[in-house]
């Protein structure tokens, strides 16, 4: 039974200069207590997909097609007032930049309390207790003192913990984490991920994890979707996709991760870059957007976009000449 | 030395004037400002030649409304002096004082800000304390005191306005010099052993110019307003016709003859408006990315 | 403890600035053309030899410059800024008589400008291309370009001749001899035009500043966080964005206090408002130098006090500043 279902989602951006499809026909669903990773380079539409789920798309960007359902209820046509009741309560989000995502002029305790005031009927005393419990639950000691601290007084890792406490305050069904550790030190990254895993084990929250790092995927996620230029490139369970990637782009992403082998240093040979950059969305034609960077590209790749096809049960890829591995 | 020059040049070539003009040209308000400024400058320069009437001479019945007599198209003031002649001759005084005062403001502010921002340390500390001290004195009040203590001549008025209005320019120049002095091409020219004076005025200054030019433009507007305020209070040279003086002296009669105070005010308004629109336009042209919304 | 230390430090600096203003005043008295005794006597022509001798003795003008300066400072710190020979009163008494009217005018104008400017700016920022936004742009151009004394005169023509609904001169109606509440109402009625004239310039400026600042802050990550919490748009605007957007306005208002007092001189002159502005105007015309310099000194002191207050207000709004100094 999936808690969140995204069905043929399209997001368009309209400006005076014209209109661009930022997210093109993306579908996935996610079960409670599971983690789905959305992977791709920057500009591939993964953040837009996340913001679309929260219905917090920036000005100019709108959902033009598709349905998003949370526990069977459609979010796409929900009135804004009801959507507000869902944000921060049943579905919450943490962001890439913990340094700037907290309001500098309010204490962190106050910022957590605000969520509780918005979505619960707790009285002042109960809120104060709950805030401190939340701060403790994200692994911060002396919660009483920390709750009156201002964001600038805390480290990046601490701030991200506060963001997590805020996101989990109302026990959401779904937590969307948009590159939650990109701005943090490697050691802090590991702490944040282990915290997310612990919290998930306790609350059964479904996590949508947006990342560009296959190492993180391997460590955190159950399922994965790979996006390229707003489209789905590959989808499947993490086990299958990481061990037997079918799309050349997925393979490229996996090869970007340095492999640590026992008894040797990082084997430099295995670290490769994908040549080129993500194409500007307005330049994409009828063909596969990855064709220009792909080693296996041939004529039909330039001519038409490949459909999503089944490699094996619950493993799909959109590539003309995917290789079974 | 040649290397430094080429570095400097390539830096200024980053924003060629042609591009800036291209952006400036596309803004209708900026063009309106330019037209206003040119129009008023032309009035000030050739107006009195084309219409050689002495603004102090009594030519018709006092307080004749505009359009009631051919002798004075825009009417006469409380003594029967020609308002149109006053406006044309007054343009010159207002603009000369405004420009001189603005130039002084920019020169004082630039020198102090440049030295503070370049040398930092003790020099910066002292210069910034001096700047803070000047910012504590209400500018118009301070200018009034200076003019009163000295003599009411155009030069004294211009110098006084300059003396009271430079602190914001100094702060801006200091911030720009602080920003630019640590950029690579400045470090490069230092490493090549160029004189400090050369670095300040030939390497850093050209790159600090765009925001300073914008601020200088706006300073002209402020200086015109100061000049008008001082002449309105009767503290400028009573023998030189200016818009502020016309308003100040005509004030008592304005309930009976609205045009005596209204028309010179309209001139000041358009002069300052023109200058500030030009300033905004230049600002947009120099920072296309930071275009105001 | 930190705050008290900080205030102490600022007060000390304020005293230094005040002393500097006094030194400037004294130097101006000496720089003015002619005999300082003549200058102090006010070039009233009728200054008798006895009067001049009296002044020389009183001000120690026969002593060396530095000794004179010492005496001058000593007297100033004891609250003696000399005698006004035009009004035949001690300068300090004269200023204290006129000070309340100026304070009333300046603070009414300042409140009008900051409150009105903020409201207009916030409304304008809601719709960047909308009507309010265009009005703010127009108002800020007109407000800057129209000389303040001329605006005042135009308002007098409008509300004194065309639609006579506001008094155009003075602080209260002398003929009414009103007392108590009706006197307060009378003063408020007289206050409308002068404070509007003075305030509208700054209102224009602050509304433009607030708009720009709001538009910038609305792009901030913490605004997105507030939305992701499920906060209403109104809360996002007024609680999360405005509190941050107001900071540059506070800075600007503090910086411009001197210019506000300058404006008050012109506005008081236009409306015959019996404050420091008319006092300084009258004494300038009468060449009553001790009074002129006394007003300069008092105004500078007001600016210094305003800067202190701004500093404290800023610290109250922005917790990030509290750590510094």
Notable traits:
heterotrimer, A: 325 residues, alpha/beta, eight-stranded mixed beta sheet, four-stranded antiparallel beta sheet, 12 helices, C: 325 residues, mainly alpha, MetI-like fold, 2 domains, two-stranded antiparallel ribbon, globular
Give an overview in words:
The complex is a heterotrimer of chains A (325), B (293) and C (325). Chain A is of the alpha/beta class and 325 residues long. Chain A has helices at residues 46-54, 80-86, 98-101, 108-119, 124-137, 143-146, 156-168, 186-203, 214-220, 238-243, 248-255, 299-303; strands at residues 4-15, 18-30, 35-39, 61-70, 73-74, 91-94, 174-178, 206-211, 223-228, 231-237, 309-312, 315-317. In chain A, strand 11 (309-312) and strand 12 form a beta hairpin. The relative contact order of chain A is 0.14. With 293 residues, chain B is mainly α. Chain B has one domain: MetI-like (MetI-like fold, Orthogonal Bundle), CATH 1.10.3720. Chain B contains 12 helices and no strands. In chain B, helix 10 (196-232) runs antiparallel to helix 12 (258-286). The longest helix of chain B is centred in the middle third of the chain and has 37 residues, at 83-119. Chain C has 325 residues and is an all-alpha fold. Chain C has 2 domains: 2-76, no CATH class; 91-317, MetI-like (MetI-like fold, Orthogonal Bundle). Chain C is built from 14 helices and 2 strands. Chain C has helices at residues 2-31, 36-41, 49-59, 65-77, 91-126, 131-145, 148-162, 180-217, 221-228, 233-255, 257-271, 276-285, 289-317, 319-322, and strands spanning 83-84, 89-90. In chain C, helix 5 (91-126) runs antiparallel to helix 6 (131-145), helix 8 packs across helix 11 (257-271) and helix 10 (233-255) packs antiparallel against helix 13 (289-317). The longest helix of chain C is centred in the middle third of the chain and has 38 residues, at 180-217. Chain C is globular, with a radius of gyration of 24 Å. Classes of the chains: A alpha/beta (325), B mainly alpha (293), C mainly alpha (325). Chains in contact: A-C, B-C.
């Amino acid at each position: 039974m999936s808690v969140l279902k995204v069905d043929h989602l399209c997001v368009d951006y309209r400006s005076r200069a014209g209109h661009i499809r930022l997210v093109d026909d993306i579908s996935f669903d996610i079960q409670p207590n599971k983690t789905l990773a959305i992977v791709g380079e920057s500009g591939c539409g993964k953040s837009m997909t996340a913001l679309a789920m929260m219905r917090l798309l920036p000005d100019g960007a709108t959902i033009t097609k598709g349905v998003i359902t949370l526990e069977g209820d459609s979010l796409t046509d929900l009135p804004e007032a009801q959507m507000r009741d869902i944000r921060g309560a049943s579905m919450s989000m943490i962001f890439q930049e913990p340094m700037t995502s907290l309001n500098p002029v309010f204490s962190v305790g106050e910022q957590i309390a605000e969520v509780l005031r918005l979505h619960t009927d707790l009285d002042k005393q109960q809120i104060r207790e709950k805030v401190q419990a939340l701060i403790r639950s994200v692994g911060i000691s002396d919660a009483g003192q920390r709750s009156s601290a201002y964001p600038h007084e805390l480290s990046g890792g601490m701030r991200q913990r506060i963001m997590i406490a805020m996101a989990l305050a109302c026990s959401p069904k779904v937590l969307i984490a948009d590159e939650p550790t990109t701005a943090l030190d490697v050691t802090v990254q590991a702490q944040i991920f282990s915290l997310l895993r612990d919290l998930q084990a306790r609350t059964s929250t479904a996590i949508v994890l947006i990342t560009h790092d296959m190492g993180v995927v391997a460590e955190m996620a159950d399922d994965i979707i790979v996006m390229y230029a707003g489209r789905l490139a590959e989808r499947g369970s993490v086990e299958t996709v990481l061990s037997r990637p079918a799309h050349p782009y997925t393979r490229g992403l996996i090869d970007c991760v340095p492999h640590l082998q026992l008894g040797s240093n990082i084997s430099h040979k295995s670290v490769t870059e994908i040549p080129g950059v993500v194409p500007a969305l307005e330049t994409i034609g009828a063909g596969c957007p990855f064709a220009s960077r792909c080693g296996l590209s041939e004529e039909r790749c330039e001519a038409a976009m490949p459909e999503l096809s089944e490699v094996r049960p619950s493993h799909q890829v959109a590539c003309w000449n995917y290789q079974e591995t | 030395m040649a290397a430094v020059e080429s570095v400097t040049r390539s830096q200024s070539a980053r924003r060629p004037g042609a591009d800036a003009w291209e952006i400036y040209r596309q803004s209708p308000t900026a063009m309106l400002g330019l037209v206003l400024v040119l129009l008023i400058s032309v009035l000030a320069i050739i107006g009195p030649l084309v219409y050689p009437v002495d603004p102090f001479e009594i030519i018709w019945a006092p307080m004749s409304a505009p359009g009631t007599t051919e002798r004075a198209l825009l009417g006469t003031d409380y003594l029967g002096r020609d308002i149109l002649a006053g406006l044309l001759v007054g343009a010159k005084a207002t603009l000369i004082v405004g420009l001189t005062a603005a130039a002084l403001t920019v020169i004082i502010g630039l020198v102090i800000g440049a030295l503070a921002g370049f040398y930092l340390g003790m020099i910066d500390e002292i210069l910034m304390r001096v700047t803070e001290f000047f910012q504590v004195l209400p500018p118009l009040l301070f200018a009034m005191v200076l003019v009163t203590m000295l003599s009411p001549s155009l030069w004294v008025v211009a110098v006084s306005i300059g003396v009271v209005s430079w602190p914001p320019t100094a702060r801006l120049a200091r911030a720009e010099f602080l920003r630019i002095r640590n950029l690579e091409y400045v470090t490069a020219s230092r490493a090549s052993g160029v004189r400090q004076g050369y670095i300040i005025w030939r390497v850093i200054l050209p790159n600090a110019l765009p925001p300073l030019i914008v601020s200088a433009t706006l300073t002209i507007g402020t200086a015109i307003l100061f000049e008008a305020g001082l002449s309105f209070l009767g503290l400028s040279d009573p023998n030189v016709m200016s818009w502020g003086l016309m308003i100040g002296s005509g004030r008592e009669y304005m309930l009976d003859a609205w045009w005596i105070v209204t028309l010179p005010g309209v001139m000041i308004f358009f002069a300052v408006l023109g200058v500030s629109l030009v300033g905004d336009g230049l600002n947009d042209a120099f920072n296309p990315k930071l275009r105001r919304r | 403890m930190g705050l008290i230390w900080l205030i102490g430090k600022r007060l000390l600096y304020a005293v230094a600035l005040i002393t500097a203003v006094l030194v400037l005043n004294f130097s101006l008295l000496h720089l003015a053309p002619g005999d300082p005794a003549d200058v102090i006597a006010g070039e009233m022509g009728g200054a008798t030899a006895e009067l001049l001798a009296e002044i020389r003795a009183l001000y120690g003008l026969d002593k060396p410059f530095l000794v004179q300066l010492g005496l001058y400072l000593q007297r100033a710190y004891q609250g003696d800024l000399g005698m006004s020979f035009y009004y035949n009163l001690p300068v300090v008494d004269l200023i204290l008589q006129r000070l309340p009217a100026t304070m009333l005018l300046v603070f009414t104008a300042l409140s009008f400008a900051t409150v009105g400017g903020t409201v207009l700016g916030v409304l304008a920022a809601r719709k960047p291309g909308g009507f309010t936004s265009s009005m703010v742009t127009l108002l800020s151009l007109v407000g800057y370009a129209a000389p303040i004394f001329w605006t005042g005169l135009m308002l007098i023509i409008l509300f004194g001749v065309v639609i006579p609904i506001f008094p155009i001169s003075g602080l209260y109606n002398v003929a009414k001899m009103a007392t108590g509440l009706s006197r307060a109402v009378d003063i408020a009625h007289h206050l409308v035009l002068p404070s509007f004239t003075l305030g509208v310039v700054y209102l224009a400026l602050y509304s433009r500043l607030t708009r720009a600042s709001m538009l910038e802050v609305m792009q901030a990550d913490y605004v997105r966080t507030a939305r992701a919490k499920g906060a209403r748009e109104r809360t996002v605007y007024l609680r999360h964005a405005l509190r941050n957007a107001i900071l540059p306005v506070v800075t600007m208002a503090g910086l411009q206090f001197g210019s506000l007092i300058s404006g008050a001189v012109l506005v008081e002159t236009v409306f015959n408002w019996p404050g420091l502005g008319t006092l300084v105007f009258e004494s300038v015309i009468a060449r009553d130098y001790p009074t002129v310099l006394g007003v300069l000194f008092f105004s500078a002191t007001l600016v210094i006090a305003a800067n202190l207050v701004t500093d404290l207000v800023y610290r109250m709004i922005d917790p990030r500043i509290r750590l510094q100094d």
